[in-house]
Design brief:
This protein has 363 residues and is of the alpha+beta class. It has eleven helices and 18 strands. It folds into two domains: 185 residues, Aminopeptidase (3-Layer(aba) Sandwich); 168 residues, Aminopeptidase. The radius of gyration is 23 Å and the shape is elongated. The protein binds coenzyme A. The site of coenzyme A (COA) has 21 residues, from strand 15, helix 10, strand 16 and helix 11.
Length: 363
């Protein structure tokens, strides 16, 4: 797939894109085939779910008491206007996923299970990719899902697939005393992250930052930027969101989290009307799709909601950021020579920009 002249390999990762392409129906190397689910899959589905649940302590299964729909799951999802798929390996149900419409334009992903013997094989990516594509073709503009708070491996998987935590924890009152995290992502769009969603986005935001720094961006770090350092930055940023000191905006394109920008709200007492734009980052594989502009506009909206009337920022002269800020009607305050230095010691001039909110016709 190509997005704006850029291959998906650049956007997600070569490995994941290879999995996406082969997700058709069969993976000969790992021996699985994905096909529409049938009601006759009931026993295989129940065995698969138990194989997954039994790897976590404290989880119990009472099919007839709590989940009778598992016996005819295909009919159940058809009744919701959705669809069920299973993966088969050697005649056994080895994976499954379902999707169905919720409040428009959201669709819910559910019953995501891959047999533990196939973890890491790419089957989860193949199943989720199939479900997301099906729902998008049917009009989905947003995906939501619920995941047991104990399923930490699943959380890492959803976060890798650009989902972020959403809303409060759900209490099921079942025999396993289940609590569930909500996850969500828009197909395309920009959203402001709260402390939980920012925390869950840390790995992806760190990946974006590392890719930008490796690509030569001047955003406070020198290449090569290690994952630990990048994650530590975003963990602190998420903590700052919780304390009301920072706002983080994230941008998705085609279901992939590709860009971010932050607002430093922790200003001195006499500048509480001001905020500073920092760490505007769009993954090198997602440039010139309008994400940078969308993020800047979202940051302006967040600033206004926080009672700020003046935004400031600095950028390396001649960078794409300069063109973006001028296109968005920011004013140049001046230039500072030798403001930042690259890893090779090269010195760079910075331009300081400002924008008064509420007085410019930006759209
Ligand atoms: C700056 C950055 C965020 C722009 O993101 P982007 O998603 O590519 O920007 P957009 O697609 O929204 O571009 C909006 C407008 O900005 C201008 N612009 C953006 N990149 C440009 C470039 N490379 N050359 C010229 N103009 C550019 C154009 O006017 C563009 O509108 P157009 O595409 O209709 O012509 C991105 O290049 C980036 O992440 N750079 C590395 C990090 C960085 O330097 N951040 C800024 C720190 S201050």
């Amino acid at each position: 797939m190509t997005v704006g002249g850029v291959t998906t390999e650049n956007i997600i990762s070569k490995k994941m894109a290879a999995r996406e392409r082969t997700m058709a129906d069969t993976d000969a190397r790992n021996g699985w085939t994905i096909r529409p689910g049938r009601d006759s899959d009931g026993p295989g589905i129940i065995a698969l779910i138990w194989a997954c649940w039994s790897t976590y302590p404290g989880i119990k299964m009472d099919v007839d008491g709590e989940m009778p729909e598992l016996r005819t799951l295909s009919t159940y999802y058809a009744g919701l206007g959705g669809r069920l798929w299973v993966a088969e390996t050697g005649g056994q149900v080895s994976g499954m996923i379902a999707v169905h419409p919720r409040e428009p334009p959201a669709w819910e992903i559910s019953h995501v299970y891959v047999h533990p013997s196939l973890h890491g094989s790419g089957l989860g990516h193949a199943l989720l990719g199939a479900a997301e594509r099906y729902a998008q073709a049917a009009g989905a503009e947003r995906f939501v899902l619920w995941s047991d708070t104990r399923f930490d491996r699943a959380h890492r998987f959803y976060e890798k697939r650009s989902y972020v935590r959403h809303g409060s924890i759900r209490v099921l009152n079942d025999i396993s005393n289940s609590l569930e995290y909500g996850y969500a992502k828009p197909v395309d769009g920009v959203e402001c992250l709260d402390i939980a969603s920012a925390g869950s986005a840390v790995p992806r935001l760190a990946e974006i930052m590392i890719a930008c720094v490796d690509d030569g961006a001047s955003v406070g770090f020198l290449a090569p930027l290690g994952a630990d350092k990048a994650r530590a930055f975003w963990r602190q940023a998420a903590t700052d969101v919780g304390a009301g000191k920072r706002a983080i905006v994230a941008a998705w394109h085609d279901g992939v989290l590709l860009g971010t920008g932050t607002l430093d709200l922790a200003m001195p007492d006499n500048q509480r009307h001001r905020a500073e734009v920092q760490k505007l980052l769009v993954h090198p594989g997602g440039r010139r799709l309008g994400l940078g502009r969308q993020i800047m506009r979202a940051l302006e909206d967040v600033a206004i909601k926080n009672g700020r009337s003046l935004l400031t920022l600095d950028t390396r002269a001649g960078d794409p950021g300069e063109a973006l800020y001028r296109a968005e009607h920011w004013q140049e305050a001046g230039r500072i020579p030798d403001f930042a230095r690259a890893a090779d010691g090269t010195s760079h001039e910075a331009i300081v920009f400002w924008k008064m909110l509420g007085f410019t016709n930006r759209r």
